[in-house]
Structure to design on (159 residues):
C-alpha cells in the first residue's frame, strides 16, 4: 500500500480511540501509522499506552478465542514494535532490552537478532553484532536492518 493511502486511515483510528481510548488494536494501528510517517515520539506514547492496557495485575492478557483474537495484538508484538520505535528514535539500550526479551521468549527470533546485530554494530560491540548476525541468518532472516551493512564475521555462534 502506498504511503498516502496508508495515512488516510489515521482519522479513522483517531475516531475509534475517541470512542474507546483503551482499544489495543486502535492504539497499535495508530502507532504504526505515526511510525510510518516518522512521528516516533507519538508512536512511542501510543504503543506504551497499548502495553499498559494489556498488562494488568502483573501479567499480559492475550485473547485466544477467534472473535477476540481478530482484534487483539499479542503483548510480544507490542514489545517487538516498541523495540523498532526505540531503534528508530536511536534509544538503542531500550531497543536492545526489548529485542533480548523477545529472543529469549522465542518471538520473531530472526528479525529480533537482526535488530540486535544492528544495535551492537552501532554501539561498536562487534563480537555481539557478529553473534546476532549469525543467529539472524540461522533463523532464516537475511535482510539488513536500517541499511546497516552485514559484517564479515570470522566466527559463528559465540557471545
Amino acid at each position: 500500500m502506498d504511503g498516502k493511502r496508508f495515512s488516510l486511515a489515521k482519522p479513522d483510528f483517531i475516531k475509534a480511540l475517541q470512542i474507546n481510548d483503551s482499544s489495543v488494536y486502535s492504539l497499535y494501528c495508530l502507532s504504526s501509522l505515526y511510525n510510518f510517517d516518522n512521528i516516533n515520539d507519538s508512536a512511542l506514547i501510543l504503543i506504551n499506552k497499548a502495553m499498559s492496557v494489556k498488562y494488568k495485575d502483573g501479567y499480559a492478557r492475550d485473547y485466544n478465542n477467534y472473535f477476540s483474537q481478530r482484534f487483539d495484538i499479542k503483548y510480544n508484538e507490542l514489545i517487538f514494535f516498541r523495540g523498532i520505535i526505540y531503534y528508530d528514535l536511536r534509544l538503542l539500550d531500550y531497543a536492545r532490552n526489548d529485542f533480548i526479551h523477545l529472543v529469549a521468549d522465542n518471538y520473531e527470533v530472526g528479525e529480533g537478532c537482526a535488530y540486535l546485530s544492528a544495535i551492537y554494530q552501532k554501539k561498536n560491540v562487534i563480537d555481539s553484532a557478529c553473534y546476532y548476525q549469525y543467529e539472524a541468518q540461522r533463523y532464516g532472516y537475511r535482510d539488513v536492518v536500517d541499511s546497516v551493512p552485514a559484517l564479515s564475521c570470522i566466527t559463528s555462534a559465540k557471545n
Summary: The radius of gyration is 17 Å.
